[in-house]
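Job type: complex structure
Entries:
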Amino acid sequence: MADTIRVTLKLYATLGKYLPAELRRSNEAVLEVPASAVLGDLIGQFSVPPPSCFLVLVNGVFLPPSQRATATFVDGDVVAIWPPVAGG
Amino acid sequence: MAWQRKILRVDLTAGTCTSEPLNMEWAKIYLGQRGLATKYFVEEVAPSVEPMSPANKLIFATGPLTGTMASTGGRYSVITKGPLTGAIACSNSGGYWGAELKMAGWDMVIFEGRAASPVYLHIENDTATLHDASALWGKTTWDVEPALRKIHQDSQLKISSIGRAGENGVLYAAVINDLHRAAGRSGVGAVMGSKNLKAIAVRGTKGVAGVKDPKAFMKATQAAKAVLAGNAVTGEGLPKFGTQVLMNVINEVGAMPTRNFRDVQFEGAKDISAEAMHAPRESDGKANLVTNQACFGCTIACGRISKLDQTHYTVVNKPEYWGASGGLEYEAAWALGSANGVNDLEALTYANFVCNEDGFDPISFGATVGAVMELYQMGVLTKEQLGIEAPFGSAKALTYFAECTAKGEGFGPEIGLGSKRLTAKYGHPDLSMTVKGQEFPAYDPRGIQGMGLAYATSNRGACHLRGYTVASEVLGIPIKTDPLETEGKAGLVKAFQDATAVFDSAGICVFTSFAWTLADVAPQLDAACEGDWSLDNLNMVGERIWNMERQFNNAAGFTAKDDNLPKRLLTEAAKTGPAKGLVAGLDKMLPEYYAERGWDTEGRPTAATVERLGL
């Protein structure tokens, strides 16, 4: 259907616990969502608290907080999310 | 002062140990550890010195906060001229050894000359003595630590030592303390080996007295610890996932150097990530990660402690590797894994154990194996030469090479040369992914442009710990910048480099900088020791240290042409991910960086810069 798209949602680090047990090893879920869906609609499916979503990458590119309430996705997008993390 | 005001000078040629006062005027100008020890080094050692000669010196140095109640105040650094690079080398380690040295009453140990036969240094508070180490030569660091505790009947001895790699002249040999903490980079362990110095065993019971204003110090350190505890990175992310949490992040942004930098994303990243270390193994139902671990005084505790699967091919019938030991940090997991296309988490963990056991840097080792595998794929190196088939992705080749390098057997000595010398020897120097002879860490400059400049200008060769702009470009600390953009990165790199020099000189861990700024460090230093530790002056101290190191390198023969990146990164565009089509834009950043630094077009600090910094 033209009005739905498939988006891969990846939840890493402490956010992985929000995924169903069978998906935690891969840290990802493939979602079929309306083309009008925004970030809140994706994470809402797994009850991820929005404030936990610090680093949000869409196909590897940073999605600024100012665009997260309005940016929509296209079919095949990969959305990866982390809480605040660092290393080195 | 949080100083003991005392240096131990060990003349290995003469076999003497003498005490001398710490230069307190220099301590006010160069702070401590990296900065202060480098000042001693450049004053005492000619820049032209041959790194493995008796004329080179080797300094073990603490900072003013080492051994105090400051969070992470357990650090020490090893300063020398590095054999891998020919540049100034300064490798930083945690664990418990640095604090023990300070509590024994010493701020710094300077080794000079070369012992006629293997020795170790034993320090028990004010008493320092050299002992015959013939029976320890040929032993691993894992053998040396219990052996010395038994010899001295002291279970609390803290020990820094070299393994067989340091003895055999592996040019990226490390100094290992507390079994798996390492002054890892640039070959400081090879210099130790060249001096016939096997170990330094320390017992200190004196504590660190003389804090300038104890009440203010307690208040400042408590406030700073609260900042670490309340920060999501240092209070939660690093303790639970360690630095390895970056594996999936960096892969996702397309900056994961893969198969000797031929690719920027690794299909096996998820298999060797922090998340994978937490997941139960299919073989035995247990996770690779056992627990986290803290160094002395640390309230972050990012260290990884792992146990291998006892049925894995690497350790079947080798119970000495079945216990819990230092697990994979991100850089090691990358270098042993992605850099070679290997996604076997247990094999990487085993190779990491071997690196700790025999004391060599997993970054330079893994990256050199990447070059070997590319030469094998090209047909330049053969199974007959290597002793094994070595295509990209071969875990068995990786672990075989780790064992050969540790023992100095087979092709190991060649891998121990590092990739610059090895690829040149076999006619393909462009395949060495190095700057100033040191192998890159785990961030591809095509996908994180600022890191290209940070690598090119790092005073100890390619390194992420001299200016970690990844924090800003990828992780948004302290502010988010665009990793694909070159504009503005010159100033960003300079700011990170100068601030890092302060953290490295204070006796604390640079990982505090994910939560702390220099404004959090300043009150701790101000309460600990005399001197002007205002924010402005700390920035000046960092810049002074950076320029002092640079002047040494310039005098050692390094010029602007050495502030460069491998041809591959400048001419072969990234094939996938957000950086697809991009090469490293070093030429756009370097002139601006020189201008920001107050250097001439040849990369030399101008007379005005030297005067301004009081050098």
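Summary: The helical segments of chain A are 39-44. The domain at 4-82 of chain A is CATH 3.10.20.30 (Ubiquitin-like (UB roll)).
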